[in-house]
Amino acid sequence: MLRIRRITVGTPTDHGDTPPLDVTNYNQLSFAFHGSSTGGQNISVRVTDSQNNELTPVDMNDYITGGSPSSNTWYEVAIPFSAFGATSTIQSILFLSPNTTTIYLDNVQLTNSATSTSTASSTLHFIHTDHLGGTNVTTNSEGEVVQVLDYYPFGGERINSGSISTDRQYIGERYDEE
Predict the structure, then answer these.
(1) Quick count: other Cβ atoms within 10 Å of Cβ 63?
(2) Average pLDDT for consecutive 10-residue bins of the chain (178 residues)?
């Protein structure tokens, strides 16, 4: 796994002397995407090679279950490099959307799905937020409440009941034990 620190959202930039990324040991681009407060975003993911040639653009919605993101929901997305036509190096990753000015991404990384030993099946959960954007209630695909969270002022945990653990908590940020 290689965590990506160079991401362009919106328009391509001059990469100057930044060396391209060697992707020969990875076969996919993985990231978390949030449907924001409205959902329905149409995101195009584009990759450039080491000569800054744009490879085949990919519609991110093709890799989201259901095809279109819902509001207030995080999605784990994995796009194989073969979809872009990428071979051994990439220079940049570009996320474009004609209908939104803000794209919420997290945990962008290069991964190799062939090395994964996980046999766990995925379960769809919905995160319901409070007025500050923090995780308040988590439900499963049947609408049953599986976790309830509430916070003291400044983020201290007041209530944490349930069986699901999410790292996104107070004001939608990652929970830090310290």
Answers:
(1) 19
(2) 45 54 81 81 83 85 80 85 80 77 76 53 68 79 82 83 71 67
Rounded CA gap, 149 and 158, in Å? Answer: 7
pLDDT tens column, 135-157: 788 887 777 888 888 888 887 88
Q: How far is CA 157 from CA 12, 18, 175, in A?
A: 41, 42, 10
Query: Which two tokens mark 28?
Result: 């996919």
CA distances from 104 to 22, 44, 84, 135, 159 (A): 25, 14, 21, 16, 27
Instruction: Tell me which amino acid residue 120 is.
Output: A
